[in-house]
Write a structure and sequence with these properties.
The chain starts with a helix and ends with a helix. It is an alpha+beta fold. It folds into four domains: 77 residues, no CATH class; 154 residues, no CATH class; 99 residues, no CATH class; 49 residues, no CATH class. About 9% of the residues have low confidence. α1 runs antiparallel to α2 and α15 crosses α16. The chain contains 21 helices and six strands. It has a six-stranded mixed sheet.
Amino acid sequence: MKKNLHEELLQLIEAEPTNESVLDLLCQIDDNIQKIIESRFQGKRSERLEEKINGSIFKAFKDNETGYSINNYLDIIINRVEKILGNSEKNISEILSELGIFALHHSQTLLIANENKNKGVIKGSGEGYVESYNNDKLKSLLEILNGLGIYGDDIICHIGGVEKNMMRKYGYIYIQIPQLNRSVLISDGSGENTFVIKGLPKDAYFFQSTKIDIFNDFEVDSIPYTKRWGELILEKLQEDFIPKIKMKEKISMFTTSELLNIFQNDKRYHPDILMKSSAKNLKQINIGGYNLTQIARLFHIKGAENILGEVRPENKKLHLAYLLKSIFGVGYESIMEVINLSQSQEKAPKEASGWKVKSQQLGYFPEVLLSKTQAELKLCRVCGFTLSEIAGELKVADTYGIKG
């Protein structure tokens, strides 16, 4: 067991306890524990085996040598989630963000009152997500989803406001769960039922619809908050459970404009952050159940598979830049710098004579280059290439020992 694996898990639990990557790391740790068990005890097992070896397994990397079992990690996850959900100082938006769940905020009310049916879209006060929640239903729902293998980065939440003249104190949260082909309307307001909807209706529908309307337009189960609430929610959610959804089915669940909205409103997906992200972090991005490569295909980005594929780092960044350009436009230097560099390199000459002309156009004559320091030479670029890269193109780097 490596220390960095243990530390990485604790850091991820602190940052995003409902992220699926937490489960991945737990599985890695469990595999390592099993290997240690087999090697130390040569296949002999007992009911109290984990208890006996708990401290010794982690002795090599845990300063206090108390050790962590899988159950210890699970307790930490539960405590972290409960701490976030129980924070009365934070609004629902901040709570969902801490759990790694993307939330879209709407000034309109989700599920309008019957008397406002013909008044058009109703603007709420915003109190639906400004006031504190006790989060009992939301907490229970997230636990149920985790049990089905669905995590914070697999769902999208829409948070609406509350009309001033409504009896309802808290607004509804509309949660889309693509992997289950189900949606949930949930409110922690007293006496408010939870609605499980078959399918993934667009959020705009609920701005002009009442509770009566949704029963007329969709297959809906209304579940009161009783002792059997969790049992009934689980039953209705997993009726059409599909472990994996095909690419085309997944993509069709969200329109391009919806994905644009997600990217442009979540600071985690800011171009400057994504362009600096490691390949590992890019692989962990999951929006509504699909990754960056799948999203790039939706935007018809040529070479989309290269964003997460086993290719050169500069190739990954180029295709990521094209995706972000489609989403955010040309106003970001971090995006355009990569694209402009690639376009410049495409115009690079193939022969030595061509490189000579390009170099001299930039003032890179022999006497000028020979007068530069090593640090200055590393900054020189011709058609976007460093001098060492040009030497490699001309196949003279090894001959003349040109490096860096």
